[in-house]
């Protein structure tokens, strides 16, 4: 693979990151080509030593996704962090995915149940006083408020558990990245 092909594939893999970050990463890898070429090495040999450009891009994107999640905990950043982790820990996905699907499904069910309970409480709050409940209209109103509060509590617990899940996945991804990083740096440094 030539220098231009390597850098083009790397740039394509980094698509979605800020342009200045892409330019900096590509310039860094181009500097590796320049330094190795000055030592008399050919482009295909240098490209092989640097590794697969798509894999390098996945690692950089994973690190960027995790950094965005740590900087600002938003739903979009949570999705970006999870996608980055899935790409980085692709081998473990065979073991982690079934567990993750079960946990995410449970969280989604609790959240949907919380919304349903909230709306059921709203129905009791609004229609209860007109249904002549035992204890009078005040009991129906208070029961409706209580059921709506239970729905809000269920949704809040789901939100907290979701943040914990994303934080666990970030920790899991960083653990894998830290375990792989020294080996990757050693193999790249020894080959260049």
Structural account:
The chain has 192 residues and is mainly α. The protein contains seven helices and no strands. It has helices at 3-13, 19-38, 43-50, 53-71, 75-88, 93-127, 137-191. Helix 2 (19-38) packs across helix 3 (43-50). The model has no long low-confidence stretch (mean pLDDT 80).
How are the SSEs ordered, and which strands pair?
Blueprint: H1 3-13, H2 19-38, H3 43-50, H4 53-71, H5 75-88, H6 93-127, H7 137-191
Helix pairs in contact: 1-2, 1-4, 2-3, 3-7, 4-5, 4-7, 5-7, 6-7
- In what range is the share of β-strand residues? under 5%
Helix fraction, binned, reads over 70%
Mean pLDDT: 80
How would you spell out the order of helices and strands? HHHHHHH
Going by helix content, strand content and strand pairing, the class is: mainly alpha
Radius of gyration: 26 Å
Number of contiguous helices: 7
